[in-house]
Amino acid sequence: MAPLAPLSEEPISEVDPKSITNLSKRTHSFRAWITNHLISHNKSDLRILLSVIGCPLSPVPVLPSPPQNVASTAQYIIQQFRATTGCAKIEGGVKSMYAAGRVQLAKWGPGNRTTERRHAGCFVVWQLVPNKWLVELAVSGHKIMAGSDGHVAWRRTPWVGAHAARGGVRPLRRALQGLDPVTIAAVFSPAQHIGEKFIGEEDCFVLKLDVDKSTLSNWGDSTAEVIKHNMFGFFSQRSGLLVRLEDTQLTRIQSPGAEAMYWETAISSSIEDYRMVDGVAIAHSGRSTVSLVRFGFGIKTNRVLTQMEEVWSIDDVVFNVPGLSVDSFIPPEEVQRSNIYDMSDEPR
Fold first, then answer.
1. Bridge partners for 199 per DSSP
2. DSSP run (H or E) holding 179
3. Which of 214, 249, 247 is nearest to 231 (CA)?
4. In this predicted model, what pLDDT tens digit does every residue of 32-83 receive, in sequence order?
5. d(CA 4, CA 154)
6. Residues with Cβ < 8 Å from 79, sequence gap 6 or more?
7. Fewer beta carbons within 10 Å, N or C terminal of the chain?
């Protein structure tokens, strides 16, 4: 069997079922997705929604050991967050976690918000210390899955199948939306404090993370180059909690003989309703919005072609789930048989 191509973080083109076999044999470029969905104004939006905001990963991994030379302000902010959320009660005593929740997804173009269609669904997340996780999301009859066994991250959709994700093992972005305080603290441990900003009714410290260039160089393909990807965390000065998460990716698209075009994908998540679960503060609701913007040669102004939204809530959180073991996080056979699985420890 031919090895599977790595699956990029960009959305996957919707195709006729007869062409699924061909799709599994090649990388799906960002440019192809743009052509099929944004420029042609494809009306079938649920698959786009699920591909973009269904199960995205964090742009940065959890470092094996936190750096010791982080600026004192950034360290203070993280320590305040750890104390407020009760991270010490999880570390050492909690080996696994289960969470269940509900989502509503919507997509619209410029000026078309009034005609948006909302798709309702639900999701479940399992985590096992230190870096194993599994998520299942079901929306309007479609179900997608993503997971990590500690060596490789993968995603499976009914229209493409299972593929290894580029970038190695990284946390699930949903875990960073207030669901897993320990992972949030670990991910932002090397961040830089860049200032303060007023968010809603909160004065917030702003921490910034940048994906290094060597990692970005392995994210692209023959027509797409990821130029930068950064993430910002907004921590309330009053409570110490993470109240907003933003990340932005800039991609350069160029075919032979054509002018370069640039696409910016921006995801912003507001994080709310922190409640104590066994002495740990867990966010129980929030909202994520996504904007795709095009600019470059021949385009006078930035143009937002597509906007998406996810509204989510948490119904249940359980620590130390009985019976949950490493066997629950074994990747699908397609991923295990691919040579990507053997190379999963390499950076993206």
1. 202
2. none
3. 247
4. 544 444 443 444 678 888 888 888 888 888 876 655 555 578 889 999 999 9
5. 11
6. none
7. N
